[in-house]
Amino acid sequence: MKKVYYAGIDYHKNYSTVCILDADRSVVVEATVRSNTKENFATVFSRVGCAISVGF
Fold it and tell me: Which phi and psi angles does 38 have, rounded to 5°?
């Protein structure tokens, strides 16, 4: 069965806070992203260890 994760991002001008939860609502990753670049976000999301789909 495919694992499901949920991510919340509190986006600010110079940094963001990311929290990724699993389907049981357990925190998998909690991190601060300094200088909001796609590379920095990719580093945080790579900690989950699976493909990521993004939706707005």
Answer: -65, -30
Residue 8's SS3 state is strand
Judge contact between 27 and 20, C-beta under 8 A.
Answer: yes
What is the count of structural domains for the chain? 1
| Beta strand residue intervals within 1-56, DSSP E | 5-11, 15-22, 27-34
- The model's pLDDT over 1-25, given as tens digits with 9 standing for 90+, comes to 778 888 999 999 999 999 999 889 9
Is residue 34 in a domain?
Answer: yes
Q: What average pLDDT score do residues 28-53 get?
A: 88
Mean pLDDT on 43-47? 91
Tokens of 42: 């990719």
